[in-house]
Amino acid sequence: MEVFEKIKQLIIDRNSFVLEAGAGSGKTYALIQTLNYLLQSKSKTLKYNNQKIVCITYTNVAKNQIIERIQNNPLVIVSTIHEFLWDCIKSFNKQLVIEFDNVNTDRHNEKPHKIALLDLQEEIDTVEYDDWVFSDFEQGKVGHDDLILLSKKMFRANELLTSIIAAKYPYIFIDEYQDTAEDTVISLIDYLLERNKDRLIIGFYGDSYQKIYDTGIGSLQEYVDKDKITLITKQENYRSSEEVIKLLNNVRDNIKQEIPESKDTVLGSVEFINCENYPPRADKQKITDYEKSLIPIKNSNYDFVKKTLEDKGWNFGKNSDDKILIIANSRVSQRGGFGKLYKVYSKRYGQMANDKLLKRDHPLTTLFVGTIDKKTSIEREIGIENLIKFYQKRDYGNLISFLKKNSALSTNLKHHKDKKEITDKIDELIKIRKSKTVKDVLDFVESKGLIVFNQGTKKLIEKAKINLDDINDEDEKKKIIKDTAFFNTLISLQYKEVINLFKHSQNENVFSTKHGTKGEEYRNVLVIIDDTSWKQMYNFQNFFNNTEEKPERKLRSKNLFYVSCSRAKEKLVVLGLSEMETQAMKAIRSWFGENNVSTIGNP
Ligand SMILES: Nc1ncnc2c1ncn2[C@@H]1O[C@H](COP(=O)(O)OP(=O)(O)OP(=O)(O)O)[C@@H](O)[C@H]1O
């Protein structure tokens, strides 16, 4: 039976389910089919009962795709898990205060020195959701992470609440379920579903092998074993060529994929390239020094492979068919000439540095190089570097509208003198940014009125001026110290790094394989791995030769490798920039095929 037919039957029989299927198997496609089926068959009842279907997604790509494919039907609420949970619990204020007090007690017990034990039932009247990472208990503001725990407590303690949710939302679907927090799964299955089996269906769609976030549940097998939900799997891979599918089947052990009969065959290939042209480490040379010394050779290996592929017709230009997926962000930044900038973000934001810097989801990054509108994916050209770009391209229309929107200057440029005043300032800016620090440039653009800082930047500047003795809350203090250290180190860097970041962001042929790439697909994909670039997080050699001692790192490396390789529709090349040793190469040979492994050796 076709998978969608199975889902239909489960819905008719009123069974909740999990669709576990590999990359490219059409999970998002099946989810949209499910929504359309319900809209066709149940719209009247839903409207009559004032009910809605809920569909939870994690990425904007998926969200927009779903909204578009169901033609914006108002009977379906497409939202993030945080939006949904908050919407469920927000009107139960009295209980919210009680449970938020319990969250505070839990957090205090976990970290007694960091989180003060408060009597919130005495101190606050309401709880608000602050879409910020941390909670501010005293102010009654629940943060991102605590909202998940708070919701679990609310669901557990409150049968009326779960019964109201089930009455309002008889169908709840979760895309990419593997990245859902365990506490949320408990809220949804153990409390909401178990108490309302007769009137609620929950469908999970995802792939345990594509879990990217450490906090995700990964697998729902435990719930399947307890008969709480029914497992359906899907064998097809609609995306990739036979060669790529074969490799993916070798990497994973719970599903063997095949090409659907209906699909035309495409000519595909897989290849692994190992770099063996590095000199050995000198006696007593420090590892970090040794690794640094290899960077130029690594860069030339990368350039060589890229060029070879381009000669074969691969196209890495903007919006082109093919993609380079670089797992190591620090490598991208070093190559791009903004390694120090990356390091500063990485120190402050850890795993999130990628989003903050490369995806430009941070007020300072936006001030420097603009950003991308998350909802529409359209470039927002609002950074200092955009101003210079418009000026240098003599794009005066955009230049004026930029100044109108972002500067403190008058754009009523009737006289030559007015124009000259502005062009002089920009000329000066162009000059100083090549040789001076970030601080010099920020001071210049602000004092000359060229750009009014955004709120986030203003806040950071204010924070750096706070006298820490005035702050009692230890958590708050720590955060201020971190933010200030981040800000001060960042502004002491050479502004040149920002120029290089901008160049990189405009080129866009290089991506890092994080959450954003799931659901995406390209004709040909070049995956770059380098074990020296993010050592705590990933080690591919240990994954290949099966010697990894840290289970989380193994899982992370395996899943990231699987997600990246599975984006390719036709051809896949994996370049191992850090040399893989013999046992790892043995596994690689058996996965990729003896003839599909090559090396870059000494000339
Ligand atoms: N039943 C189908 N018939 C034809 N094409 C399909 C079918 N299902 C999916 N596809 C196509 O296959 C590709 C992969 O589908 P989709 O993105 O839904 O897979 P997925 O399982 O969500 O992928 P991933 O988890 O790897 O991101 C898409 O191009 C989609 O249009």
Automatic annotation (TrEMBL):
It comes from Mesonia maritima. InterPro entries: DNA_helicase_UvrD/REP (IPR000212), P-loop_NTPase (IPR027417), UvrD-like_ATP-bd (IPR014016). This is DNA 3'-5' helicase II. It comes from the Bacteria. PANTHER family: ATP-DEPENDENT DNA HELICASE SRS2, UVRD / RECB / PCRA DNA HELICASE FAMILY MEMBER. Keywords: ATP-binding, Helicase, Hydrolase, Nucleotide-binding. One of its GO terms (molecular function) is DNA helicase activity. Residues 1-254 form the UvrD-like helicase ATP-binding domain. ATP binds at residues 21-28. The lineage of its organism: Bacteria, Pseudomonadati, Bacteroidota, Flavobacteriia, Flavobacteriales.
